[in-house]
């Protein structure tokens, strides 16, 4: 053998075979196996489309949009099926309209005490001035002046304040502002707050005249504040205040001119008497 042949044989012995090195599934070196792989892949795809049970479990999970869409389709099918027969839900009934009139709530204490005439002038009332119902219509400054006069002018040592519903914040401002305006030491002024509720009634008036008027009851929150100065014992009012506005006194000779000041009427003196002349 020539030297060139020996070198080529040795080179082929050292190089591995391409057929052994190729992947079993690789059909690039086996052209006769390519049609078989294509036919098998198409057959498996057809089987997966025909039989849904062969799909993997992960493909069965649907998105929220698909779930909502399916639920809407089922509702439409149910509604279309119910149209032929009876409706599942009855039609809404028309509501009767009515008007509500709020009645006057009960007062925590009477406007005028039982010992005072309710028909007389309000300026003559000397009792019950330390019981005040707070409303939103009256300003805070007016309440401060009124409460201050109750302690200083009328001589009361206890003040009762009451409010209901939306007037409660107005009462809280008054209860916090009043102790600083009173000329008493801070340790002598005591404030007691009590909360509660009261039942109020409303009148329900229907639009139809044939129907009767109904009443409904509801609850409303209340707050009561008691401000006490010292021992809380009321003092008598100063002189001149108890009889203020108590009425007018008829004084004789009260009027104008000298005849009124002397208490004599014109024509009835010594010279004016009938038959008293010469």
TrEMBL record:
It comes from the Eukaryota. GO terms for molecular function: nucleic acid binding. Keywords: Nucleus, tRNA processing. Residues 95-104, 267-278 have a biased composition (Basic residues). Residues 55-65 have a biased composition (Polar residues). SUPFAM superfamilies: AlbA-like (SSF82704). InterPro entries: Alba-like_dom_sf, Pop7/Rpp20. Residues 23-35 have a biased composition (Basic and acidic residues). The keyword Oxidoreductase does not apply. It is found in: Nucleus. GO terms for cellular component: nucleolar ribonuclease P complex; ribonuclease MRP complex. GO terms for biological process: tRNA 5'-leader removal. Residues 1-125, 230-278 are annotated as: Disordered. This is Uncharacterized protein. It comes from Ganoderma sinense ZZ0214-1.
């Amino acid at each position: 053998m020539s030297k060139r042949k020996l070198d080529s044989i040795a080179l082929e012995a050292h190089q591995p075979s391409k057929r052994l090195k190729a992947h079993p599934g690789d059909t690039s070196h086996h052209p006769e196996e390519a049609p078989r792989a294509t036919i098998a892949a198409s057959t498996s795809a057809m089987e997966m489309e025909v039989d849904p049970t062969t799909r993997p479990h992960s493909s069965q999970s649907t998105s929220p949009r698909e779930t909502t869409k399916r639920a809407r389709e089922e509702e439409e099918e149910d509604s279309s099926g119910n149209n032929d027969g009876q409706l599942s839900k009855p039609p809404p009934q028309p509501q009767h309209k009515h008007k509500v009139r709020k009645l006057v709530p009960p007062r925590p204490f009477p406007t005028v005490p039982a010992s005072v005439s309710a028909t007389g002038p309000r300026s003559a009332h000397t009792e019950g001035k330390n019981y005040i119902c707070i409303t939103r219509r009256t300003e805070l400054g007016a309440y401060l002046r009124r409460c201050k006069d109750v302690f200083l002018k009328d001589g009361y040592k206890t003040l009762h304040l009451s409010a209901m519903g939306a007037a409660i914040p107005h009462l809280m401002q008054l209860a916090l502002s009043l102790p600083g305006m009173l000329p008493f030491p801070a340790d002598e002024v005591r404030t007691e707050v009590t909360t509660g509720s009261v039942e109020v009634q409303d009148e329900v008036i229907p639009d139809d005249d044939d129907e009767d008027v109904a009443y409904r009851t509801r609850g409303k929150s209340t707050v009561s504040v008691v401000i006490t100065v010292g021992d809380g014992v009321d003092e008598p009012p100063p002189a001149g205040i108890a009889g203020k506005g108590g009425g007018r006194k008829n004084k004789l000779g009260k009027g104008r001119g000298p005849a009124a000041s002397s208490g004599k009427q014109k024509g009835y003196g010594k010279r004016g008497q009938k038959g008293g002349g010469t």
